Amino acid sequence: MQNVKVLFLLIWSMLLCAALSADIVYIVNSESRTLSRIDTETNITDNTFATLGLVPNLLCVDENNIYVTCSGDNAVQVIDRETGSLVRYISIASSSNPWAVVKQGNILYVTGLMTNKVYRVDLQSNTVTGQQSVGISPEGMAVCGNKLYVANSGGWASGYAGSSVSVLDLESFTVVKTISVSINPQYLTVHGNLVHVSCTGNWSTVSGHVDIIDSALDEVIYTLPLGGNPGAIWIDGTNMAYVGEGMSTGFYLYDANSLNLINSSSNPLTPGGIAITGDQDNFYVLDQNWGSAGRLFRLNRSLQILDEYNLGLVPTDLALYSSPTDLDDDLLATPGIQVYPNPLGRNGTLRVRSEYLGQTHFEIYNLRGQRVLKHEVSKGTAALDLRDAGLASGIYLYRAVSGKGHVETGKLMILP
User: Fold this and answer.
1) CA-wise closest residue to 249 among 307, 288, 297, 199
2) How would you class 4 by CB atoms within 10 Å of its CB: exposed for 0-12, middle for 13-18, buried for 19 or more?
């Protein structure tokens, strides 16, 4: 009876966490010059949620606003996230061709594709307060620690000869290092202390790669030969990296911890899309569908298509926003326990990282509610060797209780 009670509490707490948010997906329709809003709970699609400026490209979202780069206006358009109304235009620089935007605190960082610069925008004054020259034709960006990583595509005219990643110190806003990478880097994402760089290739004779940069060394430590024309990268809570395809012919998959390539251009997953985002249950694939209305696919983790949404013309980017409910804010706290890799092999090594002081009780249960493993974890990272644990492949539940009573739960998948 006690085992059944523990299992019920574990499942109930996981269901509570899943119910804490309602997901909204925002999509930039570049040719239609509109912003789509999709409520994933009601499946209501509004393809004219907001009117965009000239040549809108990429976006980022916070709790209040949506920020869209408009290359034709040389500006960032700020849109109210709830109403879709225009808040303001923020001018960047003449002929800068703003491309990507990321937000860090009260600062926006914007790449200028044609000026080879990154611009710093203060959101209190809504003005450009700094600019820094980087490499040729900068596109995507990502923040890791106190550094900004900028993908310099190298420029089509030179055959992407200047392909590199610029590393900027955010405090001084200066370039501290330039890293050579594979041909035509366009998108970046951060996973732990590693920066994953999607390099699209030259669209013809040179295929694409994902380069992995160690932010402690600021060097490329590994290269994944995906092939094709890799697009944007999204890494989920189980450390799986989903990569879009620039021609929307499929998408790719690799393990962001082991860097094991699972699906490349030789065995792509479908449906196709240039960019991917998601949550703990579903993920969304953005199909540009050149020449007609784009599409957004919602898939579950078994790769089954659950929904298909029609969009505007030539969508270029998407972002998912999870709006919290009024439930206890303690349940929304940043997790103090990280469990990885997940999934992992039954003879692998499970790592449990705890941010809590003192001892944390870590336990794994099977779906019958029976405890199959327990371990005491101190602050830091513990390695649990599963070779002698006798665990069969399947789904397990874990529970971690800190010395001060913080409880965290989750799912763990054991592979054969």
Assistant:
1) 288
2) exposed
What average pLDDT does this structure show over 182-189?
98
Other C-beta atoms lying within 10 Å of the C-beta of residue 97: 19
CATH class of the domain whose range is 21-324: mainly beta
Pull the structure tokens for residue 194.
Answer: 């590693």
What confidence category does residue 70 fall into, taking pLDDT thresholds of 50, 70 and 90?
very high
The predicted-structure confidence for 128-140, as pLDDT tens digits, reads as follows 999 999 999 999 9
List the beta bridge partners of residue 412. 396
Mean pLDDT of 351-365: 85
Nearest-CA neighbor of 395 among 361, 362, 378, 372?
372
Structural tokens at position 100? 């990507």
pTM of the entire predicted model: 0.76
The dihedrals phi and psi of 273, each to the nearest 5 degrees, come to: -170, 155
Residue with tokens 């960006």: 141
Matching CATH topology for 2-14+335-415 and 21-324? no
Length of the chain in terms of residues written: 416
Burial (CB count within 10 angstroms: exposed 0-12, middle 13-18, buried 19+), residue 233: buried
Helix (H, G, I), strand (E, B) or coil at 281: coil
Domain ranges of the chain: 2-14+335-415, 21-324
Pick from 120, 225, 217, 232: nearest CA to 176: 217
**Chain CA centroid to CA 86, Å:** 26
The DSSP output letter for 269 is B
pLDDT digits (tens, 9 = 90+) for 238-295: 889 999 999 999 999 999 988 999 999 999 999 999 999 998 789 999 999 877 899 9
**C-beta pairs of 406-410 under 8 Å, 24+ apart in sequence:** 406/336, 406/356, 407/13, 408/335, 408/336, 408/337, 409/10, 409/13, 409/14, 409/17, 410/14, 410/339
Cβ pair 66, 50 in contact under 8 A: yes
In the chain, % of residues over pLDDT 70 = 91
Q: Does domain 2-14+335-415 bear CATH number 2.60.40.1930?
A: yes
* Tokens encoding 113: 């594709």
Cross-strand pairs, 287: 295
Where do runs of H (alpha helix) occur along 21-81? none
